[in-house]
Amino acid sequence: MRQPKILSTMHSYSWPLFLRDILAGASVAMVALPLSLAIAIASGADPGDGLVTAIIAGFLISLLGGSRVQVGGPTGAFIVVVFGVIAQHGYDGLVLATFMAGLILLVAGYLRAGNLIAYVPEAVVNGFTIGIGVIIAASQINDFFGLALDSVPADFVERLPVLWQARMQVNPAALAVGLFALVLIVWLRRLAPRFPGLIIAVGLGSLCVALLDLPVDTLMSRFGALPDRLPWPEMPDLSFSRLITLLPSAVVIAFLAGVESLLSAMVADQMIAGQHRPNAELTAQGVANIASSLFGGLPATGAIARTATNIHAGAQTPVAGIVHAVILLLIMLVAAPVAGFLALPALAALLILTAWNMIEPQKWRSHLQRPAGDIGLLLLTLVLTVLVDLTVAIGVGVALGLALRLARRKDVESDWRAPKR
């Protein structure tokens, strides 16, 4: 079924439900604002591109999606592949790859491929999620410690020696702001889980930089002013050679968007005892990524952290996700200059914590208690993600995972009989 969930929820909609959705949407917007900016920076894009993505894709994923409470936007899972595409093909190449990924997701939704998520081995998902978390954490060391390196290699293996050689260039002020934001985020999450701790921590850290005139980079000093309006939509370059060159990247983006959105929707179902529509979700992801690319945005998908925040804040219907996108748009139109003063070490702290949540050390014991084949598959996918390439990691992991699943199937009695002589 590809009918958007919002149509089912409108039959019994009421003003009390609308009030709860508004409050939930406002809470999610306060979480999504710093996350969207930080993810864009870590991806090698301008921070404004992340904000545009959160507005355009976030609106459409909630409007057309198959979950009552799913919230979409740019996520940490895309950082690695987006950074690689931009480094190799430029930002216009990323826009085209995102556009193609949207088309692939539309086809997947039309062919009702949403149920195929069950065949992706859990060990593969865990392996590349942990690997992406490791890469994200490593990518934030420069800003968190204020090393001020002009350029850091994209390759993980090449990046580590460069960071180690710059260890004596640590900026104490930047490190203090990063640590302050990191500790405050953790403390507020434990003290008041429903409180918008992310924006409070990043805001207070940035306020210290401004009031004390600390030598710490901000969004404004590094990237210039944030956009105060949405750009005009524009079609990407659809030349045949570019389409062929960027097709592998588009397939990876589509795969990540599909897998993460459906996993997020499944987690949301467990939290609200609901039932999402996987094919409607894939269709919404397709439309959202096409629209995001037309506005020059990043790839987008359902975001587990923002979806969980939405649920905890009392969201009842997809209207909450729509409200979150509208509030982000109002922030862009009215408060973009203020957002430009956000300190980069504070945003780096936010992403380091995001990476920690992706790595999930508390689950390592349970991972090691699984069959040897699953452990090996997880480690292989993790190593390939960090040291080789996300495309290779996914391809090899899924192929080996399916092979393991077939090997574990119980023997079925064959009806073949030897021919009579």
UniProtKB/TrEMBL annotation:
The keyword Endoplasmic reticulum does not apply. Keywords: Membrane, Transmembrane, Transmembrane helix. InterPro entries: SLC26A/SulP_dom (IPR011547), SLC26A/SulP_fam (IPR001902). It is a multi-pass membrane protein. Residues 18-363 form the SLC26A/SulP transporter domain. The chain crosses the membrane at residues 21-42, 48-64, 71-87, 93-111, 123-149, 169-188, 195-212, 243-268, 326-355, 375-404. It is found in: Membrane. This is SulP family inorganic anion transporter. It comes from Pseudohoeflea coraliihabitans.
